Amino acid sequence: MSEHSLPVIVTLFLEDYVQTPNGLSKVFREAGLMNYWYPISQMPRNGQNWPLVQDMVVRNFRLLVFTSMESKEKSEGIAYQWNYVVENQYGNDGMIARSCVNREESSALNNKSKSLVLVNYFGSLPSKQLACVHNSQDLINILQTCHNAAGERWPNFVAVDFYKVNLNYT
Ligand SMILES: *[C@@H]1O[C@H](CO)[C@@H](O)[C@H](O)[C@H]1NC(C)=O
Predict the structure, then answer these.
(1) What is the average pLDDT across 143-158?
(2) DSSP code of 36?
(3) Mind listing the GO biological process terms from this record (predicted)?
(4) Can you tell me the distance from the alpha carbon of 103 to that of 22, in angstroms, rounded to the nearest whole number?
(5) Which residues line ligand 1 (CB under 6 A)?
(6) How far is residue 109's CA from residue 146's CA, in Å, rounded to a whole number?
(7) How many domains, in total, are found in the chain?
(8) Are 100 and 149 in contact (CB under 8 A)?
(9) Is residue 170 very low, low, confident or very high in pLDDT (cuts 50, 70, 90)?
């Protein structure tokens, strides 16, 4: 790998329905992806800062995997998403102007013991037409609203539908 190659870091948020014990970790291991795995022992807890991208790349911590199953953090060493991330409501209920509240599984958005912030902004039913509106000024508005709700923190992750579709209107 050349020193000028683009550092890639991938984060997976798994809506996890894998019931087989160690089934998920087996897949990552057999695919050779443990070489890039960000170990939970190194993940910041209690509101500590995450390392710089540069430091993550140097240490080859380039794959972050989060599971929605709490038990897997202990049993398989896979990070339980809501131990590290706060997240607002998704779907239509999350698209109310000037409102940004946590989804049920998440701590309050301003709880800084979770260092990462994920903002959802997409309708309950995907609509390519509406994505033009949702992914433009509406999105800027929700990012500002959630920034305030999360204790002056910008999101690390933004979840939208049809991410390539936007209309730059103001
Ligand atoms: C923030 O989250 C932590 C860990 O889940 C919890 O113990 C604490 O009570 C929360 N703090 C507030 C202010 O809600």
Answers:
(1) 98
(2) G
(3) lipid metabolic process
(4) 28
(5) 107-108, 111, 113
(6) 8
(7) 2
(8) yes
(9) very low
Q: Read out DSSP for 105-154?
A: TSPPTT-TTS-EEEEE---SS--HHHHHHHTTHHHHHHHHHHHHHTTS--
Q: Residue with the nearest Cα to atom 11 of ligand 1?
A: 111
Ligand 1 pocket test, pick from 105, 107, 110 with the greatest ligand atom count within 8 Å of Cβ, gives 107
What is the torsion angle, in degrees rounded to the nearest 10, for the CA atoms of residue 105, residue 111, residue 113 and residue 117? 70
Q: Is 67 inside any structural domain?
A: yes
pTM: 0.91
The candidate with the shortest Cα–Cα distance to 122, out of 67, 165, 66, 79, is 165
Helix (H, G, I), strand (E, B) or coil at 41: helix
Query: For residue 120, what are the domain limits?
Result: 86-160
* Mean pLDDT, residues 15-35 taken together: 96
Distance from C-alpha of 121 to C-alpha of 20, rounded to nearest angstrom: 32
Nearest CA to ligand 1 atom 1: 111
Residues 77 and 91 in one domain: no
Rg (CA), the chain: 17
Of the candidates 2, 6, 7, the one whose C-alpha atom is nearest the C-alpha of residue 60 is 7
Which of 83, 110, 130 is at the close of a domain? 83
